[in-house]
Amino acid sequence: MGQVEVMEGLIGPTLKGEGYALVRVRLSGERRKTLQVMAERLDGEAMTVDDCASISRVLSALLDVEDPVSGSYDLEVSSPGLDRPLIKKEDFTRYAGFEVEVRTNALLSGTRRFCGRLVGVMGTTVGVDLNDSGGVIQIPFVEICEAKLVMAEDLVAVPRKRDR
User: Fold this and answer.
1) Architecture of domain 3-78
2) Separation of alpha carbons 114 and 54, rounded Å
């Protein structure tokens, strides 16, 4: 289990207890590390600056005690925003029907970047209906290195509170 997975195991339950869901944990930087924690509210309401500050206080105390990151680092708490990253299979199911951009580790059909309407998860693949009329491509979930929602009218029109 890697360092990020260990931190997810620490941070996820703590956030849930505070009314938030963990979206992503990233640790970056060599000299001065940055621990980025991306979270969203469990009630579906929009995140506020106060939410981020509250999460930062709770996580600072937790991370001081558990000390999962060697050396000094900056803690950065943010919300996923409208161009939300898609990390887990549940994300790809939840946002089916929306425009996405998916990048892969390996070449698939001669490219590593796919844009289109997210069809959803089908077993071990994610379906994307390509914008260039290439039809639906099935992308193996294990090959996805980055995926995010694309700002489009249908995404902006979604009410702030979503069914969970």
Assistant:
1) 2-Layer Sandwich (3.30)
2) 37
